[in-house]
Write a structure and sequence with these properties.
Elements (H helix, E strand, L loop, with lengths): L1 H7 L8 H4 L5 E6 L9 H8 L2 H4 L2 E6 L6 H7 L5 E4 L1 H9 L4 E8 L4 E6 L14 E4 L4 H12 L8 E4 L4 H6 L5 E6 L3 H7 L4 E5 L11 E6 H5 L3 H19 L1 H9 L8 H10 L12 H13 L9 H4 L4
Parallel strand pairs: 1-2, 1-3, 6-7, 6-8
Antiparallel strand pairs: 3-10, 4-10, 5-8, 5-9
Helix pairs in contact: 3-11, 3-12, 11-12
């Protein structure tokens, strides 16, 4: 009890919890993109501090059995909001699948091209003639192609290898010389814990348009009709992000509360690196940025044409 009180004392919103919490709220289902991890910090903090409850929402947080399912389930009305990816949303828009981006959880890129720091790769140009691992064909290979082209390395001048999601092991065992898709807030620390250091080349510094890493998507008609529950959800997430930024240590304690499996060295390091990356205004929408990334996808053959903005995203 004392410990709980000390944790809550770190948050400005905490004194209001007891008096304003609602006994019941509207049922609301959030479908995650993956199992709970530090990228989901604002959601977990909002849940633990009662921000959803105070907004009139009884939020169920569900990890997916298949990471490909949440965007499709949301489009079908099975769930209220999904955590998804910008390229997935834009691809769905190009297929006229009825879902829209309504906000962002992390509004800057996380992915990198990563190599071992003590290896022979000092610049992207050094990847000419090398093997590069990836997890997801399509968008990752398009990102890689654009980045290497910016360094004068054309497609065909390197070999790509599908390493599934074993990015760090593929590097450590020298199965590949570099990987695309390593998160700057995760794989670099994973390498350190295993006794190696990584060198990361950031997407946004090598020809890739700035874009979100993780977005919130909702069913199209509900989003276009400005369902007030959707905006209430985003506002509660914003409060969770603000609380985490104001007191990362207290927020960490809330993150692992009742989740002992998350309390490990990798997550602790990832947490500190991720807190500054949370979108402080999840409901914000930059139309030019959305369309620029859609144009990147069209230019690289990932979609046939750029969908209109109103099929990609909406500002609530």
């Amino acid at each position: 009890m004392i410990r709980r009180r000390n944790i809550l004392a770190g948050f400005a919103a905490a004194p209001f919890l007891a008096g304003t919490a609602r006994a019941q709220g509207a049922e609301f289902t959030l479908l995650l993109d993956w199992f709970v991890n530090p990228n989901h910090g604002p959601i977990i903090v909002a849940q633990e501090l009662g921000h959803f409850r105070n907004a009139g929402l009884n939020v169920r947080i569900l990890p997916p059995s298949d990471p490909n399912d949440p965007p499709r389930l949301i489009a079908a009305g099975r769930g209220d909001v999904a955590v998804s990816y910008p390229h997935t949303q834009i691809f769905q828009a190009s297929q006229d699948i009825p879902a829209l981006r309504i906000g962002a959880l992390i509004d800057s890129p996380l992915s990198t091209v990563t190599v071992l720091a003590d290896g022979p790769i000092k610049t992207l140009a050094d990847l000419r003639g090398r093997k590069i691992g990836y997890s997801i064909s399509g968008v990752e290979l398009a990102l890689l192609r654009t980045m290497l082209a910016s360094a004068g390395v054309p497609a065909g001048a390197y070999e790509t290898v599908n390493v599934n999601f074993a990015l760090s092991p593929a590097l450590l065992t020298k199965r590949v010389d570099g990987v695309i898709g390593a998160f700057r807030n995760f794989e670099l620390f994973q390498l350190e814990i295993e006794g190696s250091k990584g060198r990361a080349f950031l997407l946004e510094e090598h020809g890739i348009p700035m874009h979100d890493a993780l977005i919130f998507a909702a069913q199209r008609e509900r989003a276009r009709n400005r369902d007030p529950k959707l905006r209430a959800f985003l506002d509660a997430v914003a409060r969770g992000a603000a609380d985490a930024a104001a007191n990362p240590d207290a927020a960490w304690n809330l993150f692992i509360k009742g989740r002992a499996n998350l309390d490990n060295e990798l997550n602790r390091r990832a947490w500190k690196a991720t807190v500054p990356l949370y979108a402080r205004n999840p409901a914000a929408l930059d139309p030019a940025r959305e369309l620029a990334f859609a144009e990147f996808m069209a230019k690289n053959g990932l979609i046939a044409t750029v969908p209109p903005l109103d099929k990609i995203a909406v500002a609530l």
